[in-house]
Amino acid sequence: MKHSLINFKKIMCLGMFNSLFILSAEANIEKPTFKQCQNRFHIQAKQQGFSENITDVIDNLSPIERVLVFDKNQAEFAESFAQYVKKRVSNYHIINGKKLLKTHRVLFKELQDKYGIPPQYLVSFWGLETVFGKHKGKMSVLNSIATLACDNRRSEYFTAELFDLFSLIENKTVSLEQLKGSWAGAMGHMQFMPSAYRKYAIDGDGDGKVDVWKSEADAITTAANYLNNIGWQQRERWGREVKLPQGFDFEAIMFDTPYPLSKFKSLGITQINGKSLSNYDINAELVLPNGHQGHAFLVYRNFNVIMDWNLSKNYALSVGILADKLVGSAGVSNITQAKPLAFSKTKMQLLQTKLNEIGFETGKPDGIWGPNSRKAIRAFQIEKNLTADGFPNKEVFQSLGLSQS
Fold it and tell me: What is the tens place of the pLDDT at every residue in 131-160?
């Protein structure tokens, strides 16, 4: 899913709101009606001093039920790594991305000098988000965000986004007519969420206003400003594909955990061409999007910055791979047949439930192979003398007495 330019790890505190009305994403409570949510929005808007203009906006909100369907079937978590990459690092993306590097070379040079963001990354984000502006979204941003704010799963986060959008409307930064975007409320060429628009929007073409829907320069400049503010490291790459040695000791490392690059070197990991890893003093994290039988990557701090934009490893890997290919790199090896995930969301939920039952905590079963599930699966694999790659493969399902298909 494209919750672009939002750090999901740092969901905004809503202490200003009346706690009686804040709906916890994890709360096991009955879903409110949309009318009840509108009443909550009215109360919160009054507490924050919004004008009657926003009162009218709230009155005119209406739910979009298919938004909730999209929310439960996000490509970032429903597609395999190969499926995801093949769609987003296509020949079309590469050819047109290279053209845009030339078209905007003056602007990109200015942005790199000012913000330290290499042009290929800005173009890569642009390609993944909207295929360079072809698919900016046509849904009502207001109604999409309001629908998600009224859903228990992530009500607090989307309520904050809704009120950021109210602020943009109140101060006339955006007009109601402009507010078209993705099902999750992301807007414009780079798919900014309201909070990112409010904090980081910059007039890139010098016309005295910011319009990330029509102005490529505004959207690109805002993206560079955002990446700079959340910690992009100017002299570092995002990561690289690597090769694991035969008999790699998976128990020597934890996933979703950084270690000095020297540790991976000592464990026998090499560059994909077999050359030794460098002696550069930097921390890295091992990412295995398909488990030990698939691709392997060592990723650095900028990978985490990319994930602040969209909290999906498949997304972050794709941004890095496309950026590399835009400047002549070979990209990633052996992406040929894009086989689908070997397990469904329902099957993953069953696996998570089973692991929880036998003491390997995955958190609330959500059908997503995330950090908690990787940790639990790895611990289970170690106990059962399986390859401890943290991946929900056939052996893991069978050892739990479950079918993967």
Answer: 999 999 999 999 999 999 999 989 999 999
Strands 139-140 and 259-260: unpaired
Rounded to an integer, what distance in angstroms lies between the CA atom of residue 155 and that of residue 163? Answer: 12
For the chain, give every domain's residue range. 8-73+136-229, 88-130, 239-326, 345-399
* Whole-number percent of the chain with pLDDT over 90: 83
What is residue 168's predicted lDDT score, i.e. its pLDDT?
A: 98
Nearby residues of 300 by Cβ (< 8 Å), 6 or more positions away: 233, 236, 237, 238, 239, 282, 283, 284, 285
What gap in Å lies between CA 50 and CA 167, rounded to an integer? 8
pLDDT digits (tens, 9 = 90+) for 206-235: 999 999 999 999 999 999 999 999 999 998
CA distance 397 to 251: 20
CATH number for the segment(s) 8-73+136-229: 1.10.8.350
pTM higher than the cut 0.70: yes
Inform me whether the pLDDT recorded for 8 exceeds 60. Answer: no
Q: Is the pLDDT reported for residue 54 higher than 70?
A: yes
